[in-house]
Amino acid sequence: MLTAGTLDNRGFSRADMNDALPQLQSHRLRVLLEQVKASNPFYQRKYASLGADPATIDWRCLPFTHKAELIADQSEYPPYGSNLTYEARRYIRLHQTSGTSSGRPLRWLDTAESWDWMLGCWSRLFSFLDLQPTDCFFFPFSFGPFLGFWTAFEAATRLGYRCLAGGGMGSTARLRFLLEHRATIICCTPTYALHLAELAAQEQLDLAGSSVRALVLAGEPGACIDSTRQRLESQWGARVFDHYGLTEVGPTAIECRANPGGMHLLEEDYLAEVLAPQGDRPVAVGEVGELVLTNLGRIGSPLIRYRTGDLVRIDPKPCPCGTPWRRFAGGILGRTDDMIHVRGNNVYPSSLEAVIRRFPEIVEYRIIVDQTGPLTDLAIEIEPTPGADRSLLSEAVARAIRDELLFRVAIRTVDPGSLPRFEMKARRIFRKSADD
Fold this sequence. Notes:
With about 425 residues, the chain is of the alpha/beta class. About 30% of the residues lie in helices and about 25% in strands.
């Protein structure tokens, strides 16, 4: 059984991490940079103008890596780009991002060694869930090319747990499947967990009374938003665990059982900085900043000082679970490119979701950002449950947003079942521009 006090695969307990961690990170970074400078064309070009050996200077002086340059590199050196440390025959796995923010997916190759490193990351993430020998995992989605839970599935099977794949099934069939096989751990996005709960209510299936005891949710903010978490835990009768990772980076952070509403970073596997958005100044502990990551074990296709675009806040207080690794209070708070500017107000979509999910009468919603005129207009479409009073619900939501976020927004109700449902990452922000 894996627990938060389990020895990790390097033989020392987390209680010893405070002393061992800096030396471990330094050693792994040096190994990474030695490999990269010897044979990785992408970083060789990037570091050519440094005038010094990248493995010998302060790593905080190394240039940032941006998603846009990775996309450009894959265009210039198709199909996989030049961020490959080894010859092509060493790479055994291909995955890609969803392309939701850039419009074009990033393709990512991995060697067997890099793949094993990611499975090790998941083994450490699983230790926070207090898994039992009888646990059964269910992955209710089609296994496409995004990294998603491929690594989680393989890591769990390697640890000896029964894992059920839900590809090739409709959502109702998945619900009946997980109930029939008494799954205990469900891995999916927050949006899809909400959708499955909606269907379960329609089909009169008792999720809250089922064997499911934990939801491991990733791919989008939501699991650390109080109102969304409360709805999920009530509908499923299970504990929510938020997880964070990126296809191009790897499995990175997870929530612990003792302290809901945040995520511990795997600091033995990642170097993390929290910087001023779009800047290079570290923010003070407790302030919101952009997460910049260096993965220390994915040597075949590494990312060094990668600007994720995700906003986090380091919790200044020690976690009651005893883990010394830094903790992202509130999970992923938003993205630097998601902020909506509306008539002098700045708002992140997660702030809107936190208000909207308080209303159990709202099944789904969509944010409309209209930039066709001289000023940006914002509207929210809400899909109510059948029988809900549309007028009263619209007024209540508008009032709640005005009272909490201090600006007015148009609320429009739409017919039940008319808004899209999502199996993977939700796309709830619809932008209209003058060029459309």
